[in-house]
From TrEMBL:
Subcellular location: Membrane
Species classification: Eukaryota, Fungi, Dikarya, Ascomycota, Pezizomycotina
Protein name: MAPEG family protein
Pfam family, one: MAPEG
Record organism: Friedmanniomyces endolithicus
InterPro entries: MAPEG-like_dom_sf, Membr-assoc_MAPEG
Region (Disordered): 42-66
Amino acid sequence: MTSYLPNLANDNLSYYTVPLAFVVALAPRVFIANASKAATNKPVSDKAKSPPPGSNQTVSDNSAADSKAKARIQRAGAAINNGLENMGIFAAAVTAGNAAGVGAGRMNALSIGYVGVRFAYNHIYIFQDLLPPVTRTLAYMTGVMLCMAMFVQAGMTMNARTLL
């Protein structure tokens, strides 16, 4: 029987995780839209104000929104910015690892792990008022270390080839 599922040990899916990481970086935008709708009691499609209804400006100007909702919406915007700022290093790490010939299983593990950590980071960042402060730092540093591991693996693979 033929399986249509990829074999993570042999099929290189790491390049596919770059657009997936981009989607994960933009995912807090959905939270911003829904939370601002709930906080301002206005539908997201309401175009009466000059800033977009889901923007931080709309919620921060609304006195009906509570401070917890405002803070979470602002942190969601910061999580988007942080995710987009880290996209470059992740894409470079995936490209370096694949160009150097790092094994598919290892690249899949590192890149899928990075996407998972970034997904968790977004949630930890938005809802940090419910979690210990160290969790956000641990999630961020884990993502950075996964990228650095891809670069190190690329360097080790290239060195092994050139020394032969």
